[in-house]
Amino acid sequence: MGAPADDFASRRYLVVEDYDPMCGVLRELLRRCGARKVSVAANGTQAMQALSMAKFDVVLCDHNLGLGRNGQQVLEESRHRRFIGPATVFVIVTGEKTPDMVMGIVEHEPDDYLIKPFTEAVLHQRLTRLLKRKRDLGSIQKALREGAFGQAIEECDRLMAQDPSSVAQLRRLKADTQLRLGRLSDARATYEGQMADREVAWARTGLAKAAFQEGRLDEAAYLLRQTVEINGAYLEAYEWLSRVLDRQGNVGEARAVLQRSLEVSSRSAYRQLRLGELSLRSGDLDTATEAFQRSIALDTHSALRTPAAHLGLARTLSEAGQIDEALKVLATIRRDFEGTEARLLALAVEVEVHSRKGDAELASALVDDLARQVASNDHLLGPLGTLHLGEVLLAGGQRQLGTDMLGFVARNHHEDSDILARVQEAFSEAGLAEEGRRVLESSCRDAVESMDRSARLAAEGHLDEALEAMQAARAKLPNNPRMLYNHASLLVRLLEQRGWHHGHYSEALRCITHASRFAADTRRAGELMGRLEELQRRKAQRA
Amino acid sequence: MNAQESRLDLTTYLVSAIHDMKNSVGVMTAELERAMVHTPEGSGLVRAGLSSTLWQLQRLRNQLVQAMALYRIHQNFYPFDPSAHAMTDFGAEALAWVEGLALTRGMEVRAEVTPGLTGFFDRDLVSSAVVQALHNGMRFARRRVNLTIARPNDWLELRVEDDGEGFPEAILGQPSGPVGRLDHAAGSAGLGLYFSQVVAELHRHHERAGRIRLENGGKLGGACFVLQLP
Questions:
Q1: Which residue of A49, A488, B46, B227 could cross-link A508, Cys pair, CB 3.0 to 4.6 Å?
Q2: How far apart are CA A162 and CA A133, in angstroms?
Q3: What distances in angstroms separate CA A25 from CA A30, B50, B159, one per listed residue?
């Protein structure tokens, strides 16, 4: 490690600032700190361009960049696209500390923020400290990126023992990782340790997240209400509270909570989208329209955007009888989004729009078209997307295909009461309530039977036969979380008993990752990931 | 437009205006610092003028930042974010905020921090209160201002002392009222104290809340501003 001055001179800096004189000032400040290699960008687009072309050690990015992306979005996108890695120090320069900088999701937080205006001495101090902290935390962030969660937790413990001033920050990282691994009681112990020390919003919210995963919704709601009461700007708590209330069937209050969070900070595409969805479901079309429109506007420049807000808006407009407007939105989806999912879902909404308009002939032609496209594509959509398609097909008279799709959803989510209820609803609305009950019953029976055979073989120790049965069952239940966990668990057992097998290892990993997309409870994922990590560690030691 | 909407618009206007002013203050401060570097040692009057302008700009910056924070706190929208901080780092940064100014005024500003001390608080709010106190100290000090950070009796104590004449008798002790009353007569010092007291009160741990106190004497014999956090 050289003297601080050398450190500054050898590193690469990017200044992102739209206000020209201020940009000059920041560059000058960096130069006076000893920086030599300083690049500048005047807006989000230029910033993304610069970040994609070179690796920077330090990014000083203004929060408010005029039209287009703001600093927060530049950060999220460049992390998502991996233009910046765990070693880059990302500092948001801002007129004031805002809730989305420090009160959102930890992965979206900058390394630090600096409140304008500041002096050369302050900048120098802050950057020196941040670069040092990066070195310390680098090992954790690297482990997290590589999915070595157990190792990340160990690193947290090691660093906590070294530096008491970073205990709270490390506890937060550690508990979030434990939560991600599904080690709920460990996570709770870490959060409780923090609460005993100092009561802070992230720890109380963390306890609520653990309670939510364990199905204790009342407790989760209580903790989250307390959090927003004490700290009205803690955005993550609003998001979770709304989710819990929705799960409890209290859509009205779930909406009210989101609306309050949007008063604190309205610039969140995700929260606007959620508000739109809840409002659409409760029939408040005006609020839904406005929320979807805001979500779309906020996301215009984001690389992470999905067509969800567009689809929601089209459905809302259609329900409000604004047919032409709805069709325009659907055209936008076709123009701006790639991929099968967007195309199929847009087509499904289009069917609804035309049947609402009373154009039965066109609607029916579109349903046929949809049926053809669905048949030629594997069931790769999420459960809600598939459910929606099945619903539309069933309503449009494609009874066989619709029933197949809804049966597929039921089979793969045979333990998810919310989804099963929605499948039944789709049948009932098409006037096929009895048929729905039959499909639900047979799908669930099918799921249980397919799994039982392989599980029994595994329990009896016939691992090879079990594996064969498991593969057959998986073909039927490709998205069923219990099925996927069973399969992964068998593969882990094979690895543990018979030694390293790369195919088994990567297949197990694939099962777990895929399952965690659909399962609310991550405990099994955590347990299995832990065992896989241990296996890999043993392999590395032998090598 | 109804009354509520126009009030909202006014708020948005004021907030944007403050951000704009802070940008200007930032640019002016930087330009001024550069100008001072290039002003020859001999031109005493010019340098004194520049130094005094820099001083005013720093005051302006503090007040704008504090006004914004107070507004958000009042709305319960302030992202209050207490966390653990190494006090040696905190002290060093507080000095960094006033270093340039101290130089132009020929002041000696120092920090004494109990080694290994950690504090738990919202960095920006407490830093703003302490920097404000250091500015006030420099205004009335003869030559020296000290920031002492220690933990006597389980309180984190941040103490700003100077070697000036001390506070007038009338304002010594703990400010009265639930949260220090704003007093037009107290002028800018009153604004700063009000901010510090709001900040102190926000910091709670178990049954204790933070507090501020004004004293005379201390190690340097002048005024002492004391911020205690639980």
A1: A488
A2: 12
A3: 9, 18, 33
What is the three-class DSSP state of B120?
A: strand
Q: Name the closest residue on chain B to residue A64, using Cα atoms.
A: B19
Interface contact flag, B205 A124, Cβ < 8 Å = no
User: In this structure, what token pair is assigned to residue A312?
Assistant: 């929601």
Name every chain A residue with its beta carbon within 8 A of the beta carbon of B118: 164-165
Checking if the pLDDT of B180 tops 50, the result is: no
Cis peptide before A86 (omega within 30 of 0): no
Please tell me the distance in Å from A99's CA to the nearest CA on chain B. Answer: 5
> What is the tens place of the pLDDT at every residue in A230-255?
888 888 899 999 999 998 989 999 99
Q: Inspect the interface and report whether the beta carbons of B29 and A21 lie closer than 8 Å.
A: no
Q: Tokens 């530049």 identify what position?
A: A74
Chain A residue closest in CA terms to B30: A25
**What pLDDT band is residue A451 in, cutting at 50, 70 and 90?**
confident
Tokens representing B91?
Answer: 């002290």
Burial class (CB in 10 A: 0-12, 13-18, 19+), B79: buried
Select the residue from B18, B21, B27 to test the A interface by mutation, using most A Cβ atoms within 10 A.
Answer: B27
Percent of chain A with pLDDT over 70: 96
Which DSSP string corresponds to A131-175?
HHHHHHHHHHHHHHHTT-HHHHHHHHHHHHHH-GGGHHHHHHHHH
pLDDT in tens, A302-321: 767 788 999 999 999 999 99
The shortest C-alpha distance from A353 to chain B (Å) reads 35
Closest CA to A300 of A349, A336, A247, A249: A336
Among residues of chain A, what percentage have pLDDT more than 90? 35
Give me the residue from A97, A101, A117 closest to B26, CB to CB. Answer: A117
Q: How far apart are CA B33 and CA B54, in angstroms?
A: 8
Backbone angles phi, psi at A64, to 5 degrees: -100, 105
Q: How far apart are CA A51 and CA A492, in angstroms?
A: 40
* CB nearest to A103's CB, from B33, B79, B118: B79
Sign of CA dihedral B157, B162, B165, B171: negative
* Set of chain B residues whose Cβ sits within 8 Å of the Cβ of A121: 95-97, 99-100
* Interface contact A165-B68, CB threshold 8 A: no
Cα B192 from Cα B189, distance rounded (Å): 5
- Residue in B with minimal Cα distance to A261: B77
Point out the residue among B75, B76, B99 whose CB comes nearest to the CB of A121.
B99
Chain B residue closest in CA terms to A120: B96
Q: Where are the alpha helices (DSSP H) in A163-300?
A: 167-180, 184-197, 201-213, 217-230, 235-247, 251-264, 269-281, 285-299
For residue B36, give the nearest of B101, B108, B109 by alpha carbon.
Answer: B101
Binary contact (A116, B82; C-beta < 8 A): no
User: A314-333: buried (b, 16+ CB within 10 Å) or exposed (e) per residue?
Assistant: bbbbbbeebbebbbebbebb
The average pLDDT across A514-541 equals 81
Residues in chain A: 543
If one compares B117 and A164, the residue with the highest pLDDT of the two is B117
Instruction: Output the average pLDDT for chain A.
Output: 87
d(CA A417, CA A520) in angstroms, rounded, equals 12
What mean pLDDT comes out for the span A152-157? 91
Residue with tokens 């703003």: B128
pLDDT of residue A472: 87
Sequence-ordered strand ranges (E) for B114-165? 118-121, 144-150, 156-162
3-state SS, B70-117, equals: HHHHHCCCCCCCCEEEEHHHHHHHHHHHHHHHHHHHCCEEEEEECCCC
Dump pLDDT digits (tens) for A317-359.
Answer: 999 999 999 999 999 998 888 888 888 899 999 998 998 888 8
